[in-house]
Amino acid sequence: MSIWINGQPATQLDASDRGLSYGDGLFRTLRLLDGAPLAWRWHWARLQHDCAALRLPCPEAELLLAELAAVSAEWPDAVAKLTLTRGVGPRGYAPPAAPQPTRIVQAGPRVVPPAERYSQGVAVYACALRLGLQPALAGVKHLNRLENVLARAEWQGDEYAEGLLCDSEGWVIEGTMSNLWIRRGRELLTPQLDRCGVSGAARAWVFDTAPKLGYQVREWRLRPADVLAADEAMLCNSLIGFWPIARYQQRRWSVFTASEALNSAWLAPESAISG
Fold it and tell me: Which class in CATH covers the domain with range 2-109?
């Protein structure tokens, strides 16, 4: 693992950093191939959006790209995490008038998921935890991730690769670490994230790419019953690409047409930094 803090190799953080004290910040997780982040255009757009939502100064893209390449230089296929906090501040919730953000860039070798998760699909757990509604933070990949932590603690072992989360009103929102898509014929639907949930870069990429593959794409309010009735269901994030769902509750799937097409496009050259 290689870690840079504010542009320098480091492993220690000030204990009064607001990211530690209040979760006052955001992060992005990226896959890098030979130092180039996959789907960078969509990561960069989400980062700008999230910084604006939290009123955080956003670093320059050139700076981030240089640091990502530097910390991942040791590994041709790497996983990187970019964290931005509001920086060091006095005690109390009131944010500093002129924040000096802390920028953490870290990378390590990517652990390749088992091949059968793509060819045979994955089993998905139905989480009991319900996500709270907070439109001001909806879609933002902020540092307050305790809901995801508690949901992921609901199952152990390797029977389930992921868990599906609903909100407090019973609408399906996302996986604990991924976004959800279902297919109805040639239409791809993903849950609306206007009240809670995280809008990932891979999810944003689908909106731009799936129409080129012949699919109509839209956000929709989905119940668990809608997932169970789908022709196909899949999970996505920037590290795994697209995992087809083979089992959720009593439903079984064996047709993975859309996930196969999206996985092929995801690794195409235009998904990398040049895209």
Answer: alpha beta
Residue 254 corresponds to which tokens in the numbers above?
């064996």
Cα(8)–Cα(85) distance, integer angstroms: 16
The CATH number of the domain covering residues in 116-271:
3.20.10.10
- Asked if residue 226 lies in contact with residue 172, where contact means CB atoms within 8 angstroms, the answer is yes
What's the pTM value of the predicted model, to 2 decimals? 0.95
- pLDDT classification of 46: cutoffs 50, 70, 90: very high
Q: Where in the chain are the domains?
A: 2-109, 116-271
The question of whether 102 is a catalytic residue gets the answer no
**pLDDT band at residue 273 under the 50/70/90 scheme:** very low
d(CA 94, CA 13): 21
Percentage of the chain surpassing pLDDT 70?
Answer: 97
Q: What are phi and psi of 60, to 5 degrees?
A: -70, 145
Task: Respond yes or no: is residue 174 known to be catalytic.
Answer: yes
Tell me the per-residue pLDDT of 112-132, one tens digit each, with 9 for 90 and over: 999 999 999 999 999 999 999
Q: How confident is the model at residue 274 (pLDDT cuts 50, 70, 90)?
A: very low
Classify residue 254 by burial, with Cβ atoms within 10 Å: 0-12, 13-18, 19+.
exposed
Q: What angle do CA 192, 201, 211 make, to 5 degrees?
A: 70
| pLDDT, position 271 | 56
Catalytic residue among 83, 85, 141, 176: 141
Q: What DSSP state is assigned to residue 89?
A: -
d(CA 261, CA 145): 31
Active-site residue (options: 67, 162, 174, 232): 174
- Does the annotation mark 81 as catalytic? no
